[in-house]
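Data card: per-record layout.
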Amino acid sequence: MARTPGSPRHAVLLVLSRSGAALLGAYLFTYGFTAALARLLPLARVDAVIIATLLSLLVFCAAQLWAFAARSAWQAWCGALLGLPLAAIGLWPVPGAAG
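The structure for this 99-residue chain is written out next.
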């Protein structure tokens, strides 16, 4: 059976792709967002982490909803990949920082 756009197999693959973007992609995006926000907030380290973690719950829900609201599965995955630069900001080593 060919994977034509109207076939049931194609529809199942699209739903699985969006589900993967919603679960895995939203998790990765939220991880990057939380790490970057905790690093960039001008507060004490503990307070910044707590605020970033509390906001991450809202971001995770919004990212999951966005994965299914995107026009295509490709756009849903591209949105999830936006978390990579955020993770790089949040996890970049700080010179002179201990532990």
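Known properties of this structure: Residues 17-91 form one domain. The chain has a mean pLDDT of 85.

See the next section for split statistics.
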